[in-house]
Design a protein that fits this description.
The chain contains 6 helices and no strands. The protein is an all-alpha fold and about 170 residues long. Helix 1 crosses helix 3, helix 1 packs across helix 5 and helix 3 runs antiparallel to helix 4. The longest helix has about 35 residues.
Length: about 170
């Protein structure tokens, strides 16, 4: 069982990296759904969203004994769907704080890569901290409906904008 928060964070970072380059290694419409197809902000949000959900599925499989009841698994997924959706904004917020303060992008590729690793680790760490607490929450039916709706809309936007990009540097 992955109890260690740092092991989870490093595992998320590695899974993020696999999804980051998967489309380069195996270009197809299927890998384009959950992998990065360019270096745009949107593609990194998509990678983070799907990496967190994929990691969550793997974690649940490895920890079946910890979630023996359907209700516990349901709470697990409600928390994880909410965090996956929120992770898009975590990536955006953490990534852009340094360029916002500096007033310019990273000075070189090495700095940008190192910063990207730090940002990804922070997103993973914050996501696992939050999800550990949220798994104990009892979401009302309306909150569950909101979580499911927002996560489906997030996934739909991330996928649709991959294949039908809007005309903006954000996408």
């Amino acid at each position: 069982m992955l109890h260690n928060i740092w092991l989870k964070t490093i595992s998320y970072l590695l899974l993020f990296q696999v999804l980051h380059f998967l489309y380069d290694w195996l270009p197809s419409p299927i890998t384009a759904i959950f992998s990065g197809t360019s270096e745009s902000i949107l593609q990194h949000l998509k990678i983070g969203f799907f990496a967190f959900l994929l990691f969550s599925g793997i974690e649940l499989l490895l920890n079946r004994k910890h979630y023996p009841k359907a209700e516990a698994r349901h709470q697990f997924w409600m928390a994880r769907l909410l965090i996956a959706t929120l992770s898009c904004w975590m990536i955006f917020t953490i990534w852009h704080i340094v360029p916002s303060i500096r007033g310019t992008l990273m000075p070189n590729d090495l700095t940008e890569i190192l910063y990207a690793v730090i940002v990804t680790c922070l997103v993973g760490l914050f996501s696992f901290w939050l999800s550990a607490d949220m798994e104990t929450w009892r979401f009302s039916m309306r909150s569950q409906a909101a979580i499911i709706t927002l996560s489906l809309l997030t996934a739909a936007n991330l996928i649709l904008l991959t294949f039908l990009p809007a005309t903006s540097p954000f996408f």
